[in-house]
Design brief:
16 strands, elongated, binds (6-bromopyridin-2-yl)methanol, 8-stranded mixed beta sheet, alpha+beta, 5-stranded mixed beta sheet
């Protein structure tokens, strides 16, 4: 819990550094919010069930659909752009045999109402700020960046119907996760011609914007956006963190433009975080579309990375005072001393049972108490208590009223 709090505190402080406001959504949503037909893993693993009112509900697997629903609900009552962040528990239903977690916490930051890539550049900047705060550098982690408009351009040239776009992206996202022949088979089953499949896989292997320009031509929107993003990155000062990689599409069907994912350069771990632009998500829920982009950052892979790099912080419990009485009829005195210190904002662990001093010293060491305050009858008669500074061993008597 200490490690989780430390991680979330950093998520929160970075979000606030970027002027984002915290928001939260119900963990239990209508199942319909997550039913998409693009063959995503997130759909296959939906933690869904029928509730006692016979409603089909689901534990949310991600936060973005809830955000979309809320933006629609808020409608004109909120002024754009919206810059919202959330840290929320998300669920999936996997067979326990896989030994993987069914719940994790995800940090999300989203910008709603900004159509240009300045929004994506800002989001990537915020994640890099987070990495730097916890000691991760650009030699540990990088971002692969691309745009789904590259895919869209190719599919358009092979007159693949728009409604197959999300499904093709989900298939492409499985590159390097399943054999290439299975990818080709799935693309063909999505009615792509042999030629389209080959051209698609060709384009996806492109690793430089110049090469991409050779393939697609300079005027293509995908290219101008990516160039703008990379030039903004240079102004932010994070160029060494990002690289173009056309094979990055991300596995969520609703992305429509720039997509990015944080990866560990040693290649041992799954993607650390990921996100992108989703300009047409709101209309899938019956709302008016608004330009939108955001990312999700789970709490699992980042901890594995910190362990790999020896960067998990030492987080021991801290308390300023431990207060005890030397006999049971002075317990009330101990409570009075604790109350006085707490009124002054001092943290106190009050010993609640009549314990020998040896026990108290052991507990003081375990909870890292800085000061031991002993309520003993001789001192109490004089309205005083005995104080022991545990680091130095120094001890003295002091009037209760002078304690601080
Ligand atoms: O990364 C996808 C995901 C979603 C919900 C819960 C867990 Br654990 N993992």
């Amino acid at each position: 819990m200490r490690l989780r709090n430390w991680l979330f505190q950093n998520f929160r402080e970075v979000s606030q550094l970027y002027g984002f406001e915290e928001i939260d959504f119900p963990v239990l949503e209508s199942e319909a919010l997550f039913i998409r037909k693009a063959g995503e893993e997130i759909r296959d693993q939906l933690y869904c069930f029928e509730d006692r009112g016979n409603r089909r509900v689901a534990l949310r697997p991600e936060l973005t659909p809830s955000l979309a629903r809320l933006v629609i609900q808020k409608g004109k009552s909120v002024s754009l752009p919206l810059k919202w962040f959330a840290i929320g528990q998300c669920w999936r239903y996997e067979r326990m045999t896989r030994g993987r977690r069914r719940e994790h916490y995800q940090w999300n930051m989203d910008i709603i109402g900004v159509p240009n890539v300045t929004a994506e550049a800002e989001l990537i900047s915020s994640i890099i700020t987070f990495f730097k705060r916890i000691g991760i550098t650009s030699s540990d982690v990088g971002f692969k960046v691309s745009s789904r408009k590259v895919l869209q351009e190719v599919l358009k040239r092979y007159s693949v119907p728009e409604n197959l776009f999300g499904r093709v992206c989900v298939i492409i996202d499985k590159l390097e996760k399943i054999p290439i022949d299975d990818i080709k088979k799935e693309l063909r089953s999505a009615e792509l011609s042999e030629e389209a499949v080959e051209e698609l896989l060709q384009i996806l292997s492109v690793k430089s914007l110049d090469k991409l320009e050779e393939k697609l031509g300079a005027s293509v929107e995908a290219l101008t956006e990516l160039k703008q993003l990379f030039s903004l990155a240079e102004k932010y000062g994070y160029s060494e963190w990002i690289q173009f990689d056309a094979s990055i599409v991300r596995g969520l069907a609703y992305y429509t433009g720039i997509v990015f994912e944080g990866f560990d350069r040693e290649g041992k771990l799954r993607a650390i975080c990921g996100g992108g632009r989703y300009d047409r998500l709101l209309s899938t829920f019956g709302g008016d579309d608004l330009p939108a982009c955001g990312f999700g950052f789970g709490d699992a892979v980042i901890i594995e990375l910190l362990k790999e790099r020896g960067l998990v912080p030492e987080l021991s419990p801290q308390v300023e005072n431990i207060v005890c009485s030397l006999d049971s009829d002075l317990q009330g005195g101990a409570s009075l001393v604790a109350a006085r210190l707490r009124e002054k904002g001092k943290t106190v662990d009050l010993v609640l049972e009549n314990k020998p001093l040896k026990w108290v010293f052991k507990r003081a060491a375990r909870i890292n108490a800085q000061r031991l305050i002993i309520v003993g009858s001789a001192e109490w008669q004089k309205g005083m208590v005995r104080v022991k500074i545990l680091s130095s061993g120094e001890q003295y008597e002091i009037k209760v009223d002078e304690l601080e």
